[in-house]
Amino acid sequence: NLVQILNQINNQNLIENYKAQILKYNILAGKEFRKNSYYKKALVFYKKGLSTILNKKIITSEIQENFENLIEAAELSYTNDDEKYLMKLIKIGVRNAKTNMDKVNLLEIKLRNEFSHNLLSQSLQTGVQCANLLNFRLGKNPTKLTVITEYFKTKLYWSRLNKKRLSDIPESHDPTLIKL
Predict the structure, then answer these.
(1) CA distance 88 to 102
(2) CA dihedral of 60, 72, 92, 23, whole degrees rounded to 10
(3) Which of 74, 91, 107, 140 has the fewest CB atoms within 10 Å, measured from its CB?
């Protein structure tokens, strides 16, 4: 059984060469538990896997390579109400994110956590932080017109960016695919 093997491996101090494999297999086990709605068990394996890179002093490249896993672990932390681990993931993730969108994805989980704990002032600050990362500039006391104007400017910016990304995709010659 994969889970029993991983539990044995996780309880031993392994040579550094095997850490990447341990990370991979723990994340795979976590994904399998998550897929079957065993969220607590899934978080255990995500924690064990990510601990191989989160406990290092210099982690930037490894975090970036595993950013989706970090986001999934943050979601599981939120679902399991493990606020301490969630905040650790968000702090590390925001510091090591490649793009503002990656930061926003993590901060959105933080915002939901703050809102679910009725921390409205903190969730508002997190929301403003997300808006600023998305170039949605509100200022201290925005008027309704300012909010609407910035909303449309941001929406236009992101739609152009998405169209550009779509235009960068090579054309398919498969006749069974629908063209955009």
Answers:
(1) 16
(2) -50
(3) 140
Checking 23-30 for CB contacts under 8 A at 24+ apart, the result is 23/49, 23/50, 23/52, 23/53, 23/66, 24/49, 25/49, 26/50, 27/66, 27/69, 29/2, 29/3, 30/72, 30/73, 30/76
Token reading at 76: 């599981």
